[in-house]
């Protein structure tokens, strides 16, 4: 390569994060919010893909036991643990036990909750603090517990999947705190990806998944924007899994959700308000939201 071309070389790699393909064979996976919904499906997918151990974290002990039985039936060893992800000390304690299984091949930060209400109807502790604790801070705390071992052991490709939301890319009434939590996840997750790439940890890739509404019950009553039907949990998990295996930095799904992000970025605010609110109907998607009943301390699965 000529000297003139070298002057424009980027200081970090733009190549896939791992030189060899990612596989779950014989590896250890950890899934948060694993009791039901998408978390359960991620856990079962890891077992089907050959994981030796699938660590399952959730606050719902009964549903967690059911998922563990399904994982075991698929040939993997299930390690269920009730963990309140709103409590950093609980995360640290559970992580100490989980690290005994060895470095994770896959970490799925999936757990999340939503409070669908106008901002002034949120309570400081039960709504605002809890949503931020579980959706935004818990993925950071969980990742920090396992990241050093994943970075140090380059013997196989490793993956981190952070489940954010398309709500973190566009504003939406009745989702202010939820959207804020997901904006935080997107910014943190992609920054972590860049840091790992810059520092040469090519065996460890981070994928940020930003889905639109998914029919798990978490967003019961919500409707999708124009040409954006609710995704099934199976479709969402399959798309996220394939993106994670490929080391794809970010996946926004379905395609119309990606278009919304693009248009919001190029249109003036008031023009986007008209297009997003009146044409696509994004601003009214939560008008009939009821949601799924979630106890105050539940680090709920999607």
UniProtKB/TrEMBL annotation:
Keyword set includes Oxidoreductase: yes
Record's keyword terms, sorted: Oxidoreductase
Short name of any one Pfam family annotated for the protein: adh_short
Keyword Aminoacyl-tRNA synthetase appears in the UniProt entry: no
PROSITE patterns xref list: ADH_SHORT (PS00061)
Family recorded in the similarity comment: Belongs to the short-chain dehydrogenases/reductases (SDR) family.
Protein name: SDR family NAD(P)-dependent oxidoreductase
Organism: Arthrobacter humicola
